[in-house]
Amino acid sequence: MSSLLCGLIGTGIRASLTPSLHMTEGGRHGLDYEYRILDLAELELTVDDLPALFQRVRGEGYRGLNITHPCKRRVVELLDELSPDAARLGAVNTVLFEGDRATGYNTDWSGFRRSLDRGLPGARFGRVVQLGAGGAGAAVGYATLDRGARELTLVDADPGRAGELAATLGTHFPDRRVSVAAPDRLAQVLVRADGLVHATPMGMAEHPGMALPAELLRPDLWVAEVVYRPVETELVRTARAAGARALTGAGMAVHQAADAFEIFTGVVPDAERMAAQMDALLSREALAAK
Ligand code: NAD
Question: Ligand 1 centroid to 134 CA: how many Å?
């Protein structure tokens, strides 16, 4: 049995399901795998303490780290190398330590990309509207264009954020049309769209509700959600009730973990088995919340 130590750095992450996903899958592959939570708030640290924490875990023999809010951009300056996708996104959620080198990857985008393939086979990707242009929005916008969207319209309550992301994505996908629409034009752009990607925090337990009126959902519009706690968000439920195909955010969460697992261990995980575990964990959570 080989021994492996990895961890997750971020704020407010005590309830993360990622350690369980990694360690269970590791055990199934005969790995002695420990995955720790390094919560900045619990450690009474801020994002400014990230360089010191990073050096500390490096010295403690960690094989890899997952990085989440609010450190995904800040960590970039601490790395020796970036994967091409992480460099384009300017954000890292996975770090691999090899010898004295630290390499950054981004499996948020690849996780969402895999989730689209798995959950929306055969869907049309001509015109896609994306609500939310923050951290998750950057990764899923990139994935949606990589999946083949010809036109991507970004809508965000902060038009400056949407504009910046549109400019960045447009640079990486010069043969596509990436544009911005103000929130009051959502109905107009959505009526021509094949799909809606939702990447705002609306629908989370702390932000209940939906970021758009229910009447804009229709049977021939697919919906891909990023929020996954709860897994059945109001958007997913309302879209399905309207006859639309709706993908929950759980797929992105599982596949980002599966891709990171492969980077850390060099072992190809059974992503379907990890997805089944995630479903079970989220169902248990939903029952406990009732
Ligand atoms: P963020 O704060 O970086 O960005 C959110 C963006 O949404 C902001 O630009 C904000 O202006 C915009 N916004 C908020 N409410 C809006 C509204 N009603 N209409 C239009 N725009 C609105 O947050 P983030 O890191 O991008 O996270 C967004 C969500 O994605 C969170 O709920 C997070 O849990 C989820 N997430 C899921 C996964 C996954 O694996 N499934 C991964 C990362 C993040």
Answer: 6
